[in-house]
Design a protein that fits this description.
Elements: H1 13-32, H2 34-44, E1 48-53, H3 60-76, E2 79-84, H4 91-98, E3 106-111, H5 113-120, E4 132-147, H6 156-165, E5 171-174, H7 180-192, E6 197-200, H8 204-212, E7 218-222, H9 223-231, E8 236-240, E9 265-273, H10 278-292, H11 295-303, E10 307-308, H12 313-333
Parallel strand pairs: 1-2, 1-3, 5-6, 5-7
Antiparallel strand pairs: 3-9, 4-7, 4-8, 4-9, 4-10
Helix pairs in contact: 3-10, 5-12, 7-12
Length: 339
């Protein structure tokens, strides 16, 4: 027997009018709740969060951003997009966040070059410290002084003694003028009264190629780059810049064992625009703390040669300020022209 539509219950305009009034009342009630509904959604998180990086895809800050981004999105009820804005040593990325709305929809994943870049610049469209809300560091990792596996310099002591006896004869690489890699070499020069020759490159892989080819004598680079290369036998680490020995490079001495007080940790962390509500900053800090302490995330950090480290917003800001002051001192002592 075929199915039939039910007979109409419409009983004319008189019957329809009450239903229309009921629908209108319900609609008005829903509209009145609008601000509360929007407020609730805002509290849970933005629909999209831009995690801006001045690093090229595959660079350190980009990799860490893509590692934590999905986890942050889960906690904020949002989709996190890593937005690579390259150029000017990270200034373009930083400026875009400094000028963004302070509502947490635009965040900057940045590294210690935020401070070194500020120290090197004559002028800037933003203040590297005051124009940002400091949320949290994610990781710290040392820098490493390394040579090729066939280098004639078997220890840092040998290399420094040769450099002292032969001014400008020992060259070292960096990933650009004004980077921590460069300024660490200049800091060594200032402390020991020697003249290591700086050779800037556009990236660590290019510097490694020339090191292995004998065009340069030493590489100064991050542990996140050197550790994997040393495990493959491509680099021989001579010293680490961390306060104590590195678990990733057993037996490698610290730089401060050669030069008293000379220690440095590079870092990666998250900032936002100035003026973010304190409650939002604390929420994001707690989110990041939980993410970095997840076993799988911690292990990924360690595999990349980085020590997981989440501090308070104040501790992160103080770390950046300390770096900025230190690098300004090195630049002034060595009379390095600002850019």
């Amino acid at each position: 027997m075929p199915h039939r539509l039910p007979a109409s219950t419409d009983q004319g305009p008189a019957a329809a009018a009450p239903r229309r009034r009921s629908v209108l009342k319900a609609s008005a009630a829903f509209m009145a709740l609008g601000p509360f509904i929007q407020g609730s959604a805002s509290a849970q998180g933005q629909r999209t969060i831009r995690l801006v990086s001045g690093s090229a895809p595959g660079g350190s800050t980009d990799l860490f951003g893509r590692l934590i981004g999905p986890k942050l999105g889960e906690r904020r009820g949002a989709t996190v997009i890593v937005d690579n804005k390259l150029g000017a040593g990270g200034m373009i990325a930083a400026e875009s966040v400094a000028n963004a709305r302070p509502d947490g929809s635009s965040l900057l994943i940045t590294a210690s070059n935020h401070s070194t870049g500020a120290a090197m610049r004559k002028s800037s469209p933003f203040d590297a410290i005051r124009d940002f809300s400091w949320i949290s560091s994610l990781t710290t990792y040392g820098m490493v002084l390394a040579v090729g596996p066939n280098s004639r310099h078997k220890s840092l002591q040998d290399l420094l003694a040769f450099a002292k006896a032969n001014p400008k004869a020992v060259s070292f690489s960096s990933v650009g003028v004004g980077t921590a890699h460069h300024l660490l070499g200049e800091w060594i020069n200032a402390e020991l009264g020697i003249e290591l020759t700086h050779v800037p490159y556009k990236g660590s892989p290019l510097a490694l190629t020339d090191l292995l080819g004998g065009q340069i004598d030493m590489m100064i680079d991050t542990a996140t780059f050197v550790v994997p290369q040393s495990r493959q036998g491509k680099l021989k680490p001579l010293a680490v810049t961390t306060r104590g020995p590195s678990e990733d490079l057993p037996g490698v001495p610290t730089l401060n064992s050669f030069i008293a007080g000379m220690e440095y940790d590079s870092w990666i962390g998250i900032t936002g625009p100035k003026g973010m509500p304190a409650e939002l900053v604390q929420q994001l800090n707690q989110d990041l703390r939980e993410i970095v302490n997840l076993p799988d995330i911690r292990q990924r950090f360690i595999d990349m040669g980085a020590a997981p480290k989440v501090g308070t917003p104040d501790e992160f800001r103080q770390l950046a300020e300390k770096d900025l002051a230190q690098w300004r001192k090195v630049i002034d002592n060595r009379n390095i022209p600002r850019l």
